[in-house]
Amino acid sequence: MTIKSVFPVADLDGVDPYKLATGLIVPRPIGWIGTLSEDGIANLAPFSFFNCISGNPPMFAFSAGRGMRRDTLDNVRSTPEFTINIVSEEVVSAMNETSASVDAEVDEFELAGLTKAVSTQVEPPMVAECKANIECVVTDIVEVGDPQAGNALVIGEGIVFHIEGGLLDGTRINQAELRAIGRHAGNSYSRVTDLFDLERPA
């Protein structure tokens, strides 16, 4: 058995706990979150602290840093709706463009040259170039972590799915066709293409 290094979190400095956590919890799905400001300015930002947290009804959560990408958090507080835009190979470069910190008055859809698709039941737009999108309404915002440097966990209920027909077999999603992108540490991402099956035990 190999010897492991031990890191009590209380002894770590600065970003070290974050680096260890994001280097180990991989690959992380990316929630490309569309929101709308009080002034009607569209915002689009990727979050890798993101997941599906319930199936019935479908519930999703993303965690926004209180000091970074503040626009998204401000927007869901004032307009409690958002869209999830699934990141696949076709849009990964545009997703990366929207990860930059820009002024609140900047529309990231326009910045990345993306087409706004009108949502059917929420105000924030969707990314038309994505193969799948989900319209969500905010159900809760939970403050987590350090009061100054922690995050706000935004929880939303999915109320409308938009999915390209080529991905569908009834309500089953063809994973090979979706070609989703996962987030790793630093500048690293992965393609979800190396799939294998395991039968669940009875």
List the helices and strands and how they pair.
Elements: H1 16-24, E1 28-29, E2 31-36, E3 42-47, E4 50-55, E5 58-65, H2 70-78, E6 81-86, H3 92-97, H4 108-111, E7 116-117, E8 126-127, E9 132-144, E10 151-163, E11 168-169, E12 172-173, H5 175-178, E13 181-183, E14 189-191
Antiparallel strand pairs: 1-13, 2-3, 2-6, 4-5, 5-10, 6-9, 7-8, 9-10, 11-12, 13-14
Concise summary:
This protein has helices at 16-24, 70-78, 92-97, 108-111, 175-178, and strands at 28-29, 31-36, 42-47, 50-55, 58-65, 81-86, 116-117, 126-127, 132-144, 151-163, 168-169, 172-173, 181-183, 189-191. The chain has 202 residues and is α+β, with helices and mostly antiparallel strands.
Please give the count of helices. Answer: 5
The backbone outline, from C-alpha atoms, is globular
CATH superfamily of the domain at 29-162: Electron Transport, Fmn-binding Protein, Chain A
Mean pLDDT: 94
CATH-level-2 architecture of the domain at 29-162:
Roll
Strand content: 35-45%
- SSE succession: HEEEEEHEHHEEEEEEHEE
Helix content: 10-25%
Q: Indicate the multimeric state.
A: single chain
Low-confidence stretches: none
